[in-house]
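Could you please review the protein record set out just below?
***
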Amino acid sequence: MKIMKKEEMEEKGNINWKVEHSDNNRIDEILENIENINTKLDGMNELFLKKIQSTSFEKEIADKLHKEIQEYRNDLHFQLIKPLIFDLINMKESMKRGLGNFKEKTDEEKLKLLQSYIEEIEMILDNNNIEIYDTKNEENLDFDGKKQKIIKKIDTSDKQLHGKIYNILSSGYMYKGKVIFPEKVEVYIHQKDEENDKMKGE
């Protein structure tokens, strides 16, 4: 049996200590890395929770603002049409009273009553900045596409009448200088010679 010398034993002990010390360092390093990872995960989790809370808060604020804006719009819309609504209510009540003894009225009284309703409607339109225009139905009056709308075309063999107004059926209406409801008119349309020949053949 070989007996180890003192120097050999000390050297072997140093080697074993170095190995154990190296292993301990690696374990400490791994534990430190794990701790760092856990710290980062905790931080990410905290940020995530804050983000969720922030998103929920933002959504709550957005929903509240949307509701308030919608309520404001609804109220603003009513305030804008409020005068018109009141005028229509008054007119409805006026018509209701007029129809109470309508059968007992003479034809002249009935016409006056109906005319009064027309005048009342015109007042309502005027109160809401609606201008009524009526083109005089004169001879050889040209059709105006900006203020009139063709409802019916009247065939004619006279080229001179092409595009001329035959009859005006309704008034026109403007709001602040812009046509919102054009006059309804009937207009002459000239037939071509071949169409005339075809009609003669029939």
Remarks:
- Residues 28-128 form one domain.
- DSSP finds three helices and six strands in the chain.
- The radius of gyration is 47 Å.
